[in-house]
Structure formats: structure tokens, C-alpha cells
Amino acid sequence: MMFRATCIAVFTSLTIAADSGHLPSQLLANAERAAEPAPLLWVAVQAGSQEARARLLAQAEASEDEYWLEKLIQVGYSPAALELSRLKEDPRLSGRLVKLAARGGVAEAQYEYALIRDDYKHRETWLTAAAEQDYFIAQTALADWYLLHDAQAKAEPWLVKTAARDSQSAYQLAFIRWQQGSENEAFELFKQAAQQDHVEAQRVLSVLKQYQPVSLSALAETPAAEYSNVSCKQRIQPFATGLAEIVQANRIYQQYQQDKRLSQLPLCVEEPVWLERQALNCNANWQGQGRLGCDIAALDEVTQAKGFTHAVILAKSGKANVNNGVMYLDVGDTYSVFVHELAHFVGFVDEYPLTRELAREYCQRKTAPNLVFLGQITYAPLSNIDFWETFEYPVSLYPSRTCNNIGVKSYKPSERITFMENHDAHYIPPLYLSIWRQRLQQRSSQRPIAMNFFQHYEKAGNIPKAAYWLDVLRQQRREPDPIDDAPTAANAARKLSD
């Protein structure tokens, strides 16, 4: 009956069309009053009416009528292909229809087709096609895609277009303006995003109220901070090299203050310092080592003035690592990464597979306080097991993957994945905290920033500076005299001149 009714309707529409000279306007008017408007709209479509196409598409979309969608596709109406793709359960067929609509110039389809593949050129091409048609979602997505691939100059014009409507775009554009030195404009953009409940923009505004960039020379002239814990064994000073970095440094500092796990350790982590632009020369591939690093010679006078033993430097990008009393983090590194790297300050070794080069260094020295290694007769060093058993008896050993790449078997005293194997695991066994506390009490096991300065100046051939920092290092690592405590770095300078 439905087919018969459709045929009658088509016949009627043709008759009306003939009587009205095939006027699309008359067909559209008749379709508004018809019980079955689709046949009349189809005749108007064949007569070249764009309005009829749109109305027939809306009619077919509302009724999920694949027949009329296919008819519209046959006459080259691309939006129908996108709508038909929504009705197809076969992903391959649906994908082909989206591609057809995208090639037909449908902005929404171009956006969806862009997301089908992850390769850079494909996504850039189709997001650009949709963005240039003022498709807002594609414009924001294209800006994000460029920022993800460190193409800030390409992202900037799209952020300018979308910032007024999108808080995330305003937030991202604000950072770009700050980097360009347009700090007032950046501040207004942060405010705009914050007023739209953008949490990170609100955080930035809070940080801007609390911190201001400072020069290293001015920092070296200010009095040293009074450490809150006089018994602290490591005095750690974080430095941030930019706005995004100080925001992250402050976040890490606040989380550290609330971390009950580490509160029992004799550590002093100071409030971060925001360094002025270009104060430190940092690079994501420092000296070709494939990891983040900075020229820390610039911190020489500040270290002498402030008396801290370890530094944390947050820079733009690069692989997190610890190098003799200096921790390097980038803006993407979370608090859990900080805690993982903090344990390296007392010699903890990673429990995931090290590279062959690092595995040879750490697995052959056998000095890791959180591991033992299988020797020819027994485990080594046995002193680790003896110490562990003073806190946990009996100690159970479980395989660690640390030395897998050089074929050495290593073991850890934890069945669970710890923070040294995966920082996102967050798990610090109680025994590890005991080991950490004990290592902090042993000055001879410390590798403070003084060691870093000594190695730097020795390599550069600056003998007086190398001698000064070697003396500081020796005093910091010497076990305290029961009568006279070891001198600070500031005192060491006076002692050297005597």
C-alpha cells in the first residue's frame, strides 16, 4: 500500500507540476500542504531548487528515510551523504559516506573525516578545509592540532578567531601573548577565560598575584630563607623559567605541602622562585644527551647566598631527570614525577628497564638502596637485605626489570608496582620510606648541587671555582663532628679564604 500511495503522490505531483509549468515555488507550496511532501520536494529538486534539497534532507533526516537520502546523493547533494552515514551501522560504509560528503565541501563532514586518521598532513588538510568555512569546532581543533605539534605560529590566527567564544582558546592565546611580551593583553585574556570558569586560567591569575619574575643578581642579594625544619638533610630550591613553569612549580609545591607520605622525611622544599626571561640557558636535548638540561653555572652565586643543597628547575620541555643535585622537570611533568625524581636524590634506582648504558652503570656498581642483584653465590649487596630486615622481617624479594637490557637479574623488596617503576602508581612501600629516611641521614651518600658545580668547573678548566665547590662538597658530605657541625656553603667560602 505504501508503494502504491507513493506512486499516486508522484503522479499527482507531476500533474500539478505540469499544470503550473513545473514551477519549483508552486511545488514547494504544495509540499507544505501535502500529507506526503517528499515526492513533491523531489520533483522540485529535479527542477533545480536548492530550497527543495534542504527541505527534503530535513524531511528524510527526521524520518530516517534512507531512500530519499540516497536519491539526494545521486543528484550530488553532499549533505545527504553525511546524514546517511549516521544511519549506517557498517563502519566502512559510514566512513565512505563521510569521505564523500567531505569531498563535496560539507564542513561538518570535513571535520569528521579529519579525525579518521592521525597523520599530520591528512588532519591539517581537512581541518583547514572545514575551518575556512567558519566551522567553529574545526577552528578550535585545528589550533589545538598545531599547538600539539609545536606549530604555534600556525595556531595563533585560529586562536584569535575563536578566543572570544572559547575559554580554552583565550587561555592558550594568553600564553602566546605573554611569551611575545604583550603581558597586559595576556592578562586580559586570562581574565576573560577565568570569567568563563576556566579553572587553569583562574590558577594562572592566582599565581600572578603571588609571584613576580626576579633576576639572579637580585636573588643573590636577598637574605637566605630560614628553613622551617632545622633538621632537614636536603634543602631543595625549585626554580621556574617562565609563566607556565611557575604555575606548575607552584602546583607541585602545594601538593608537596599536603603529602603526608613525605612529611616524615627530613626534607625542606622551599617556595619556588620565578626567574626572569633568559636567566637560565636550557635545552630539551642538553649537550646531545636526549634529556632536559640547563647551564647551572648561572646559579652559582645564588646557591652560595641561599645555602640550598639541591635545586629543581622547571623548563619548557624535555625528559625529566636528576643530575647530581639538580632535578629537571618540564611543564608537563606532574607531582608524581617530582616524587619519583626526588627519590633519585638519595640514590634510588628506577625499577623499569634501564637503557643498556645506564644499566651497565647502576647494575654493575650495585649501590642502589632499593635493589639487590643476583651474584655468583648469593644476593649483593647483602648489607641491603640486612638493613631492610631491621624494618621488615622476613624480607621477600621480587623480580625487578631494572637490569633486563644487560641480562642481570635484580630484585626489589615489594611485590606491588612501586613509584620507582611507574610514577603514576603512587605507591611508596613503608620500607622504601624507611630506606629514604636512612639515606638522608648518611651525608656520605648525598650528591648535592656542589658536586654538579665542581664537575662543571673542572671540565671548563676553572680551577679556583672547581676547588671551591670541591671543598664545599667535602664539607657537606663529611659526617658532622659531635662538637662542631659541618659548615654551610656560605661558611665554606670564608674558610677557604682563611
Helicity level, as a percent range? 40-55%
Task: List low-confidence stretches.
Answer: 1-21, 482-498
Shape call: elongated
What number is the mean pLDDT? 89
What structural class do the secondary elements suggest? alpha/beta
N- to C-terminal distance: 112 Å
Rg computed from alpha carbons, rounded to a whole number of angstroms? 34 Å
The biggest beta sheet, please? 6 strands, mixed
Strand element count = 12
Percent range for β-strand residues: 5-15%
Number of helices: 24
Topology:
Elements: H1 2-19, H2 24-33, H3 37-46, H4 50-63, H5 66-74, H6 78-87, H7 91-103, H8 107-114, H9 120-131, H10 136-148, H11 152-162, H12 167-179, H13 183-195, H14 199-210, H15 216-221, E1 234-240, H16 243-257, E2 267-269, E3 273-274, E4 282-283, E5 293-294, H17 300-306, E6 310-315, E7 321-323, E8 326-330, H18 335-344, H19 356-365, E9 372-374, E10 379-380, H20 382-388, E11 398-400, E12 410-412, H21 430-441, H22 449-460, H23 463-477, H24 489-497
Parallel strand pairs: 1-2, 1-3, 1-6, 6-8
Antiparallel strand pairs: 4-5, 7-8, 9-10, 9-12, 11-12
Helix pairs in contact: 2-3, 3-4, 4-5, 5-6, 6-7, 7-8, 8-9, 9-10, 10-11, 11-12, 12-13, 13-14, 22-23, 23-24
Task: Describe this structure as you would to a colleague.
It is a single chain. By secondary structure, this protein is an alpha/beta fold. Among the domains are: 1-104, no CATH class; 216-344, no CATH class; 356-445, no CATH class. The chain is built from 24 helices and twelve strands. The model is unreliable at 1-21 and 482-498 (pLDDT under 50).
